[in-house]
Amino acid sequence: SYVLTQPPSVSVAPGKTARITCGETNIGSTSVHWYQQKPGQAPILVMYYDSDRPSGIPDRFSGSKSGNTATLTISRVEAGDEADYYCQVWNTYFDPVVFGGGTKLTVL
Amino acid sequence: QVTLKESGPALVKATQTLTLTCTFSGFSVYTSKLRLSWIRQPPGKALEWLARIDWDDEKFYRTSLKTRLTISKDTSKNQVVLTMTNMDPMDTGTYYCARIADEYGSGWFYFDEWGQGTLVTVSS
């Protein structure tokens, strides 16, 4: 099966940069999308096609991909960025949609 | 303004069939080439994709749940319905409907709008 690997948790101090990774052997051949989910809320799209930012998402959020890893970078982290972040791809190998296991971002 | 709203029972018993409805507004089934999915999230766990339906009635299901899931749409009511048979306590979680998008027509779909979710608890 197709598995997207994310670190369970990332901690960062306010004002610093957080990097959340999403890894898979064939990730270079697909596009990666990212969602932010705050407690008790539905996910929202924060990055699509690896590095495109939806309207309304601050430019502190950026995305990249290199080799087998996609990265969501949050610059100048704020307390309001504390949330779970999920990566997602669309593929045809097994199930059409795969989500990563999620990363809990803690702002210290 | 695009909205999606899930509705259905909050509590079902094991072995029963769950029926959830997603009612959407703010976009047209055909002019927007609608694609919608159902996604669930067990308490404290990750998102799990369940099913997808397109404007032309093409359907896709999660492989491991394919025998238990049915997705359908009623375009006259702007609704998409998911049924899941033989419910088990492990199916407890929040169920979301989400609109599928693909701005560049690449086939690398993503979910640009989500409903608020509905919590379903399965009792044994």
Structure description:
Helices cover 0% and strands 44% of the residues of chain A. Chain A contains no helices and nine strands. Chain A has strands at residues 9-12, 18-23, 33-37, 44-47, 61-66, 69-74, 83-90, 97-99, 103-107. In chain A, the strands form two sheets. In chain A, strands 1, 3, 4, 7, 8 and 9 form a six-stranded mixed sheet that branches. Chain A has a three-stranded antiparallel sheet with strand order 2-6-5, with no helix packed on it. Chain B is an all-beta fold. Helices cover 0% and strands 52% of the residues of chain B. Chain B is globular and about 45 Å long. The model of chain B has no long low-confidence stretch (mean pLDDT 94). The chains are: A mainly beta (108), B mainly beta (124). The A-B interface holds A 30-31, 33, 35, 37, 42-45, 48-49, 52, 54, 86, 88-90, 94-102 and B 37, 39, 46-49, 52, 60, 62-64, 96, 101, 103-104, 106-112, 114-117.
